[in-house]
Amino acid sequence: xxxxxxxxxxxxxxxPSPLKRDEDSxxxxxDNPTDHHDRHSSRDRDRDRPFWSNFHSICPFFTDEPRVSxxxxxxxxxxxxxxxxxxxxxxxxxxxxLNSPYLCRKDxxxxxxxRVKEPPSLWGNPFSATTSWKPCAERRxxxxxxxxxxxxxxxxxxxxxxxxLNQQRIxxxxxxxxxxxxxATLILPLLKQDQIxxxxxxxxxxxxxxxxxxxxxxxxxxxxxxPEWFTDKSELLTSIRRTVKNIPKYAPAQxxxxxxxxxxxxxKIMALKPFVDRLGYDNVLPEINRLRCRVNYHALKFLPExxxxxxQLASRMRNRTGSSNPYMALHLRFEKGMVGLSFCDFVxxxxxxxxxxxxxxxxxxxxxxxxxxxxxxxxxxxxxxRCPLEPGEVAVILRAMGYPKETQIYVASGKVYGxxxxxxxxxxxxxxxxxxxxxATREELxxxxxxxxxxxxxxxxxxxxxxxxxxxxxxxxxxxxxxxRRYMGHQLKSIKPDKGLMSKSFxxxxxxxxxxxxxxxxxxxxxxxxxxxxxxxxxxxxxxLTPCMCRA
Length: 552
Hints:
Layout: H1 2-14, H2 18-25, H3 36-47, H4 51-58, H5 70-98, E1 106-107, E2 110-111, E3 133-135, E4 156-161, H6 165-181, E5 185-187, E6 190-191, H7 203-206, H8 209-215, E7 222-223, H9 233-238, E8 243-244, H10 253-267, E9 269-272, H11 286-299, H12 304-318, E10 328-331, H13 336-342, H14 350-363, H15 365-368, H16 374-383, H17 391-401, E11 409-412, H18 419-429, E12 433-434, H19 436-439, H20 442-446, H21 452-464, E13 468-471, H22 476-487, E14 493-495, H23 499-506, H24 513-523, H25 545-548, E15 549-551
Parallel strand pairs: 4-5, 4-6, 4-9, 5-7, 8-9, 10-11, 10-13, 11-12, 13-14
Antiparallel strand pairs: 1-2, 3-15
Helix pairs in contact: 6-11, 12-21, 17-18
């Protein structure tokens, strides 16, 4: 009431009396030249009037004036409507500003983000963008092999395929390519026990050996075991005299011809180790890269029982609602080891942060040092997009892309660091979250538990068959999945989040939900597994386009 009274008094002081207005405008008053200066002074006084008096002239029905013309009345109505519209837009902007993407109305550990309209391409890439390329790394049918017999090659090579299943897969592809480069016979690779995986699996425990050898019979000579004439097999596994150890990472083909081939010709049989990433991509002939794709996408097949179990899991994912439904596969990399190795900072209690600091100090003492530099390092890595996405961050990004609460999600993951509390935001926003352990019975999985790589193979295949695949951090698993789905025709959607941009958005306290959604949608239009031209030092396993695919 005080404000209203104050406004009224201002208006009454600024409005001239009716009598004065009548005198000024009366047509019966004689024109007097000397009044010219007075009229100028009157206009000057009008310019000095407060805004409220001008507002009365626009909206005269707010005054005590009994006569209001229809024209002024219409103008007044238009002004009022304009003010209402501006006010409504301003209120909406304020509400959007309060809905920050990392808040999404928090209820304890539950995130509640606004629903987003589902785009047409939610479950697949646009067909028009996926028809320009086709796979062309298959073997030649009906061709005549020019390979020499086994005893006429330049010798034998033997490799240790180290690491997890997907790192081993890449090593096998590279071993076939190196054997081709040197015209050597390849002994079936040994899957070496890894310190992390703690798994001793043989090649034949996971892959179809007969198909592998048969499919590549026109490209490389492959034998199942070390030849019988070489009696001291332990020497090949342990002796440095039988090992080539100085192969640089991403070595060119010429390095093998100049440095490794002479030793093979001399010794007749040599082991190559270590053999992780020991062959480059853009420093070898295109047909060698095409051969690597042939191995990866055609020759390396899992055992039939693994393929069948994966088909059952994928079928169960597609029928969880009682009718056919699409499903998403999420590769969630947020295990304790991954979090520790990343040296990134994550939300947590003081106790959790102290425990993680002790864990890092114990596992990586050289990188940890005294810990004083780690905070700055963590900030830098997050800005550069080199930190794993937390489950809650993944949930917000998926909701911004338009995926509804009902989305069926298959999770391929190890034990998530932080347990159920860390998973709660993702699970509450997308409750239809399942793993292979929830889809299959214990009895069904018991046959695969004796080899960790068999369980990893099930995850690999279910993710490969999904309608949408989402990665949360780098690694061989994700890039092999994305590459295979591209090779299959680019239509299957494979989302690779821009973690650098997402980190910037999550850290902006003034970022509203609407602009965040726009950023997510626009940024990821080209990060869904669509065709991409290759570039120097590209990764063949994630993008097989140029060497392994042809124009349709």
